[in-house]
Design goal:
The protein has helices at about 15-25, 70-85, 100-110, 155-160, 190-195, 250-260, 275-285, 305-315, 335-350, 355-370, 410-420; strands spanning about 5-10, 40-50, 50-55, 85-90, 115-120, 145, 175-185, 215-220, 225-230, 260-265, 290-295, 325-330, 375, 380, 385-390, 395-400, 430-435. The chain folds into 3 domains: about 5-165, Rossmann fold, CATH 3.40.50; about 175-350, Rossmann fold (3-Layer(aba) Sandwich); about 355-435, GMP Synthetase, Chain A, domain 3. Helix 10 packs across helix 11 (about 410-420). It has about 450 residues and is of the alpha/beta class. It has a 6-stranded mixed sheet with strand order 2-3-1-4-5-6, with helices on both faces. A 6-stranded mixed sheet has the order 8-9-7-10-11-12, with helices on both faces. The protein is built from 11 helices and 17 strands.
């Protein structure tokens, strides 16, 4: 199931970025006492009581403003609201309730999404009474917090995760393979979707950024069911000309979260760019199945070495995706699109693979016998037992004498051994180490 998305919404300077940094565990957003400092939305993964969710920080909402940047920030926040499953509405307990707070509350109420109201800057017990004013917003029980001091955050997070039970409950059981088509604008994502769907579902044009929103298309091919999610392309920040382009990143992140398999589309005419690396990195970090799709292959002048050279360059530029298969297609002519569909099915199966514990331990024991772990910090690594904890992506728990002595090169060796025996093509693998004392 996709991780829920929680957006922090509120006027400028109520402490959104301070809270975001506190929950993220590191200083990500610029925090300054000037309204409008948080220009770009930022996101991170947060875990509370075994619930993982994506937290979005937004610029503050100024309801009536002619300031271009503040207008853009409002649009940015609106898109965060559209994408979010739960909204964390922050208000300033020192300043008290304002006309803008009422306006924002009205805007949020119209979304019919769960809203958690957090009254910030309540730094001591004497200020607790300040919260009663905020009942007037009509959004239920205000929760008092101090983002700067870390007070009341547990109660606030408890309230947030309460709403997750109702988020995407039916999505987990759906039988179709969910596929996100991601990449830079004009890489051919919408053309590919139209080719698969067989009708003009997305607007296709040569103007980068034509596709504004993520679009879902349910497709049955033979006995197989797919849900294709087309996304607005991500543009490099320096190239952003239109404010709406800035906000496509979050939609892409949301699409990746919902997907089983991500098609990372590369424009064959341009090769792998820094932006392609960043987009592919989102899918990798989210633990999704990945296929690298090189599009517009029909317009490339080729000889018998072209494909090999291109493959070599991709492997070099996207080294962290060495597990991802590469396929060369033309969305326009349909070249290899059927083969790509077969590859999606294969990678989805690999991503969801479950390996029996006995077989898993045999492979790891044999790997350790062939190559002993290096001595790290004065002692050798001992692996007692391995089990698969979860799928999507395949996650393995190693019970060892000391997690601190696991060397990254040996972890890489074990990963290669698992891939050699079980395939696991197109899916990242996660290793978790737990300390187990010898009996």
């Amino acid at each position: 199931m996709a991780k829920p998305i929680v957006a922090i919404i509120g006027r400028p300077n109520v402490g959104k970025s301070t809270l975001f940094n506190k929950l993220a565990g590191r200083r990500i957003a610029i925090v300054e006492d000037t309204p409008g400092v948080t220009r770009d939305r930022l996101y991170c993964e947060v875990e509370w009581l075994n619930h993982k969710f994506t937290l979005i920080d937004t610029g503050g909402i100024e309801m009536e403003t002619e300031d271009v940047i503040l207008k853009q920030m409002r649009r940015q926040a609106e898109i965060a609201i559209e994408t979010a499953d739960v909204i964390l509405f922050m208000v300033d307990g020192k300043t008290g309730i304002t006309a803008d707070d009422y306006e924002v509350a009205n805007m949020l109420r119209r979304t019919h999404k769960p809203i958690v109201l957090a009254v910030n800057k309540i730094d001591n017990i004497e200020m607790e009474a300040n919260k009663y004013d905020f009942y007037n917003l009509g959004l239920g029980e205000p929760i008092t917090i101090s983002a700067a001091l870390g007070l009341g955050l547990g109660d606030m997070l408890d309230e947030i995760v309460k709403h997750f039970k109702t988020v995407s409950d039916d999505e987990e059981e759906s039988p179709e393979i969910k596929v996100a088509i991601i990449g830079r604008p004009n890489a051919g994502k919408s053309t590919l979707l139209n080719r698969i769907v067989g009708e003009e579902r997305s607007i296709v044009s040569d103007i980068p950024g034509t596709t504004r929103d993520a679009i879902d298309s349910y497709v049955e091919i033979g006995e197989d069911k797919f849900l294709f999610i087309d996304t607005a392309g991500i543009r490099r920040k320096s190239k952003v000309k239109e404010e709406v382009e800035k906000y496509s990143v979050l939609r892409t992140i949301a699409a990746i979260e919902r997907a089983d398999v991500c098609l990372v589309m590369i424009d064959a005419q341009e090769g792998v760019t820094e932006q392609d690396e960043r987009i592919a990195g989102y899918a990798h970090e989210a633990g999704k199945g990945v296929i690298i799709v090189v599009n517009k292959w029909d317009v490339i002048e080729k000889d018998d070495k072209t494909m090999n050279e291109f493959t070599k360059n991709i492997r070099n530029d996207l080294a962290f995706l060495d597990y991802a298969p590469i396929i060369f297609i033309s969305a326009k002519t349909g070249q290899r699109v059927n083969k790509m569909i077969e590859l999606i099915k294969y990678v989805a199966n690999q991503h969801a693979i479950r390996i029996k514990t006995g077989v898993l331990n045999e492979v790891i024991s044999e790997a350790v016998m062939m190559k002993q772990p290096p001595i790290e910090k004065g002692k050798p690594l001992k692996i007692y037992y391995v089990t698969q904890a979860s799928t999507k992506p395949p996650t393995f728990v190693f019970f060892v004498n000391d997690p601190e002595v696991v060397h990254f090169s040996y972890e890489r060796y074990l990963e290669n051994q698992l891939r050699q025996h079980f395939g696991l093509q197109g899916t990242p693998i996660r290793f978790i180490y737990r300390s187990k004392q010898e009996d």
